[in-house]
Design goal:
Elements (H helix, E strand, L loop, with lengths): L3 E2 L2 H23 L4 E7 L3 H16 L3 E7 L5 H12 L6 E4 L9 H5 L13 H8 L8 H12 L8 E5 L6 H10 L3 E5 L6 H5 L4 E4 L17 E4 L3 E3 L2 E3 L4 H5 L4 E2 L6 H20 L1
Parallel strand pairs: 1-11, 2-3, 2-4, 5-6, 5-7, 7-8, 8-11
Antiparallel strand pairs: 9-10
Helix pairs in contact: 1-10, 2-10, 6-7, 6-10
Bound molecules: nicotinamide-adenine-dinucleotide.
The site of nicotinamide-adenine-dinucleotide (NAD) has 24 residues, from α10.
Length: about 280
Amino acid sequence: MVAQIIDGKALAARLRDQVRTEVEHFKRSTGRPIGLATVLVGDDPASEVYVNSKRKLSRETGIQDHHRRLPANATQEQVAQTLDELANDPAVSGILLQLPLPAHLDAKALIDRIPWNKDVDGLTTTSAGRLARNIEGLIPCTPAGVMSLLEDEGVQLQGAHAVVVGRSDLVGKPLAQLLLQKNATVTIAHSKTKDLAATTHQAQILIAAAGVPHLIGAEHIAPGTVVIDVGIHRTPEGLIGDVDFNAAQGKASRITPVPGGVGPMTIAELLRNTLKAAWLQS
Ligand code: NAD
């Protein structure tokens, strides 16, 4: 068996086209613009690349760009004040605080200053609580992107056994909740899981979000599994994921590549969240 490749790049482009049309519709029907504020603290080169591509794609979608840049030595109070200004600015529909922050800042406290209806990364305590309680809100972009890929592929989730490797607040936990909402049977594996291969072997849908290059090999995958690779690692040979793609391709029925799988979906979902945030506030 050679796995079919799930094309995240193509789906992300379709979603961005949809958002562009819906942003136009929002502007026409409300007479108001939609704006995304990105807040970058310090000069981490990877963060700068991520923020620039988020800004570029949001502009291309008709979303106004409200970028704020603070120096690496910005204080907790300075970042908090910037977030509060954006929270009170009616032209700003969504606020994204780019992570990681410099180590002297309390990231959790700063994230929680973002009002839930502008929290386009879905990372505030309120957003996490709303997701856990199945109350409408903004969902973290990468898990939302994984769900959109599964839905677009027509993967049956109800009653299926999904194994999520990773339990972070950013990916693993929200993803497990979204899969539960779709009536999947969900197992979460993590760094203290005793026999990872035995656990992942039970999966019909296997999602790798451990942040460990090539953690998942052929021995972790039962024949016919749908494999979604969230991991991203820069190596001299290029980007690789948490899944050993070449090994997995002989076992999986479908698989996302890295790059071109989950990565582009994350930004597309950010744009969708910005549009949704604008409606939540209108
Ligand atoms: P994290 O480090 O916060 O969490 C990793 C999780 O994996 C932890 O819960 C840990 O318990 C688990 N884990 C670590 N080692 C393990 C092991 N050997 N076996 C089983 N579980 C293990 O990372 P994160 O923020 O959730 O990100 C995970 C990966 O996804 C990273 O590679 C990150 O770069 C990538 N990522 C990609 C996107 C995207 O847009 N594609 C977005 C966010 C994160």
